[in-house]
Amino acid sequence: MSRPQTDEERRKQISVRGIAEVGNVTLVKKNFNRHLHYTLVKDRNVSTMRDYYFALANTVRDNMVGRWIRTQQMYYEKDPKRVYYLSLEYYMGRSLQNTMINLGIQSECEEAMYQLGLDIENLEDMEEDAGLGNGGLGRLAACFLDSMATLGLAAYGYGIRYEYGIFAQKILNGEQQEEPDDWLRYGNPWEKARPEFMKPVHFYGRVIDTPEGKKWVDTQVVYAMPYDNPIPGYGNNHVNTLRLWSAKSPVDFNLKFFNDGDYIQAVLDRNLAENISRVLYPNDNFFEGKELRLKQEYFMVAATLHDIVRRYKASKFGSRENVRQHFDHFPDKVAIQLNDTHPSLAIPELMRILIDEEHLEWDKAWDITTRTCAYTNHTVLPEALERWPVSMLESILPRHLQIIYHINFLFMEKVAKQYPGDFDRMRRMSLVEEDGEKRINMAHVSIVGSHAVNGVAAIHSEILKKDLFRDFYEFEPHKFQNKTNGITPRRWLLLCNPGLSDLIAEKIGDEWPVHLEQLVALKKWAKDPNFQRNVARVKQENKLKLAQILEKDYGIKVNPASMFDIQVKRIHEYKRQLLNCLHIITLYNRIKKDPTANFTPRTIMIGGKAAPGYYVAKQIIKLICAVANVVNNDPIVGDKLKVIFLENYRVTLAEKIMPAADLSEQISTAGTEASGTGNMKFMLNGALTIGTLDGANVEMAEEMGNDNIFIFGMTVEEVEALKKRGYNAYDYYNKNPEIRQCIDQIQGGFFSPSNPNEFKNIADILLKYDHYYLLADYEAYIKAQELVSKTYQNQAKWLEMSINNIASSGKFSSDRTICEYAREIWGVEPTWEKLPAPEDTPAAK
Ligand SMILES: *Cc1c(COP(=O)(O)O)cnc(C)c1O
C-alpha cells in the first residue's frame, strides 16, 4: 500500500480505516515511547524490530483494557444469557493489526510509526501466529469469536493454551519436516494470566457410594490456570474474553517421592502433569485415540464447566434463590456450544456436577443438561469420529463412564419403547459400541445430550439426516438444524486486502464490514469498465506483492501476468490435491506435445500441512514438489507453467494469498467436505472458483449463479450410485490416454528418476484403493479447467465474474452464521449495541 505524503493527500484518500487525527497520533507516539522505555527497558539505539513490535502491541493493548473491563462489568450488571463456545482449537493468527482495526486506531498507529521512522508492516511481521488450531474447524472458532464480540453477545470462548501450536512446516529436499512451534518464546502481550482463578481438575481414582450419593475419590489432581485473551468487537467498544487453560502441577504433586526422600525426582515429575497443555494434536479430520488427548479434552471441559457454574451461581440471578430451585433457570442463562465432539465430555461432566455436587435428581439434571448443550458436527469421515475405548475412560474418568452408561440405559429404554423389538436399530443407536473393543461413540453422546445438532453447510446437514445420523433424525427430528459456516469480513477483507476494501468503500460506503450483504450492490458495476479496471489494478498489485514474498522467501520468480491458480488447505486424500496434480501433469504433457499451441499461462500453487503420521499425505507433498521440479526446470515450458508448493501454510500466509488469487481450487469428492471456509475467503477477495458440488460450494453457486463459478464432477447422488455399482479406476485408465500417460509417469519414475519406485504407492492408490474416485472426475475436471483458461483470456468477462463473486459473498459472513446460532440455538438476540468508548484513548471519537 502506497503511503500518501501530505496531510492534504491523506484527507483526500477515501479509506474505510478513517483518517488519523493529529492529537491521537501524538498520544500513540507518547505511549509507544513509554513502553519502549519502561516495559522493554530499551532506547532507540539498541531496540530491535521485535522490541518495536512489543512496544506497539502494548500501546494498542492499553487502548483495549478500559473497554474490556467495562464490557465485563456491563455483563455482570445486566446479567444477560451467556454463550459459551467450547473448542479444543482456536486458530487465531496474529492480533496486532486486527486489534487496531477493530478499535478503529489503525491509521493513528500507522501514522505514529511513520513519524517515528518505522514501517508498521515490519513490526507486524514480528508477531508469531497463535496457531492453536489445525485448519477450518479452529479458524471457524476464531471467526466466531470476532463475530460474537461484534454482535455484542455476552460470549466466552474456552479452550487450551497449548505451549506448542500447530508445527511449522519446512520443505527439505521436497519433503515435509515438522518443527515445534515455540510461539510463546518471546512472551505474549495479548494474554493476562489469572493465577487467582486456578481450578483443580481430577483424573483416575474410583467411585464410592455414600449416603449423599456417589463420590469420586482418590483422584490425581492437575490445576488449570486461566489465561484471558481480549476479543475486541469491530467498532462497538465491546471486548469479550477467550479463556485458555494451562496445566499446572499441584504443589504436592508426587508427594510420595518427596516422602521417599527423592526431592529432585519429585520436582522433575511436576512436568508430567503439565504435559496436558503442552502441544496441539496435529490431526485434521482424524481421530487418534491417545490417552493424553482424552486428558486434554477433559481438562478443558472440567475447568470450563467449573467456571460456568461458578459464574452462574455468583450472578445476581443464580444467587437469588435457593440452590435446588435456581438450577431450573440454568438453561435460560447459559448456552454451551460444542465445537465438534472434542469437548463432548461437557455433557457427562455437567451431569456429574448437578448430581454429585449440587445433589439434583437425575431427571432434573438431564433436563437442564440437554436444554443447555448444543452440538456442531464437522465431518462425516468415519476415521474422524471420536470413539473412546471404554477401558481408557474407566481408568481416567470412572464416574463419567458410569454416567454415560446410565444415559445410555435410559436412552435405550426410550428407543425400545418407540421401536419394540428393533434390536438392530438399538445396536446402531447405542452410545456403547460392542463390536470389537468396547467403545463410547462421542457423536451419539453429543446428540442425545443436546437440544440442537447442526451441520455446517446445507448439503452436509442433509447428509447427516439421511446418512450418518439417520436413526437419530428419525427418533428426534426437531433437534436437527443447519448453520452454514462463515468467515469474518474484518480479517478476510478489511485487514488482508486494503486495496479492494477502499474500492468497495468508494462505491457503497463503509458499513459493509458489519453488513456484508450490502456487497450485493456491487453487481450493478460488474460490467462497468472503470470499476473492472480498478478491480484488475488491485488484483495485480496484490499479485505483485505475493510474487515479491515468493521471491524473497523461496527464491522463486513467478510471472505476475500468469493466472494464480491456488489450492491451500490441509493435505488430505478427500480434498484431492492429487487431482490438481493430475491436471498439472496433463498441462505439462500437452505443452510438451505441442509447444506452439495457444496456452493460458498459469502459476499453480498448492500449500498445506500433512499430519505428521499421515504417510500418504506426506507422499502427496513429495509428488507435488517432484512434479514442480520437473515442470519448473523444463526450458520448453518456460513462462507458461510454474508449480509452487507453498511452505508452512497458516493464517498469516492465507492473508497474503487470498487477495492475490485468480482461481480457487475446491475439488473435494462430493459428500466429503462438510463446508469449507477457504472457499469463502477466496470468493470474498474476487477469485473465481473451480469446484465440485460439495460443502458450501453448493450455496456459493446458488448465491452467484452457475455462470460465475466453474462447477464440475459428480454430485453426491452420482458418487453414491458409483459406489453402489462398484468403482473400477481401470475403466478410466484404459479409456483415456492422457490419464494413462499421467499415471504411467507417476508409476514409472518420470518425476523421481533417482528413485523410480518412489511414487508407485500413489499410482497404486489411484488405480486400486482410491476411496475418493479421482479418475471418475478427471475428465470433467480437465474440461472445466479448459473453460477456466479460455475465460481468463477474456479479461472483461473474467472481471465481470470476479465482481459478481465479491458481490455475492454477503451470505458467507460469520456475522450471519452467528445471528442464526444466536436466534435458533442459543435463544439470545444480537444487539449490535455500541458501548460508549472510554474518554482517554485515541479511539474515543
Ligand atoms: C480458512 C483456513 C483453513 C480452512 O481451509 P479449507 O479450504 O476450508 O479446508 C485452513 N487453514 C487456514 C490457515 C485457514 O485460514
Write a concise synopsis of the structure shown:
This protein has 845 residues and is of the alpha/beta class. Helix content is 48%, strand content 15%. Strand 21, helix 25 and strand 22 form a beta-alpha-beta unit.
Tell me about this structure.
The protein folds into 3 domains: 1-78 and 99-118, no CATH class; 79-94 and 129-485, 3-Layer(aba) Sandwich (Rossmann fold); 489-569 and 647-812, Rossmann fold (3-Layer(aba) Sandwich). The chain is built from 35 helices and 25 strands. Strands 1, 4, 7, 8, 11, 12, 13, 14, 18 and 19 form a 10-stranded mixed β-sheet that branches. Helix 24 packs across helix 33 (774-793). The two termini are 25 Å apart. The chain binds pyridoxal-5'-phosphate. Pyridoxal-5'-phosphate is lined by residues 135-136, 139, 569, 649-651, 654, 676-678, 681.
Blueprint of the fold:
Elements: H1 7-12, H2 22-39, H3 49-78, E1 82-86, E2 90-93, H4 96-103, H5 106-115, H6 120-124, E3 130-132, H7 136-150, E4 155-160, E5 165-172, E6 175-181, E7 192-193, E8 199-203, E9 206-210, E10 213-217, E11 220-232, E12 239-248, H8 255-259, H9 263-274, H10 291-314, H11 323-326, H12 330-333, E13 334-339, H13 346-357, H14 362-372, E14 373-376, E15 387-389, H15 390-396, H16 398-418, H17 423-429, E16 432-433, E17 439-441, H18 442-448, E18 452-455, H19 458-468, H20 470-475, E19 480-482, H21 489-495, H22 498-508, H23 529-554, E20 563-568, H24 577-593, E21 602-607, H25 615-632, E22 641-646, H26 651-657, E23 663-666, H27 678-684, E24 688-691, H28 697-704, E25 710-711, H29 716-725, H30 729-735, H31 737-748, H32 760-769, H33 774-793, H34 795-807, H35 814-826
Parallel strand pairs: 1-4, 1-13, 4-12, 13-14, 14-18, 18-19, 20-21, 20-23, 21-22, 23-24, 24-25
Antiparallel strand pairs: 2-3, 5-6, 7-11, 8-11, 9-10, 11-12, 15-17, 16-17
Pyridoxal-5'-phosphate binds near residues 650, 651 and 654.
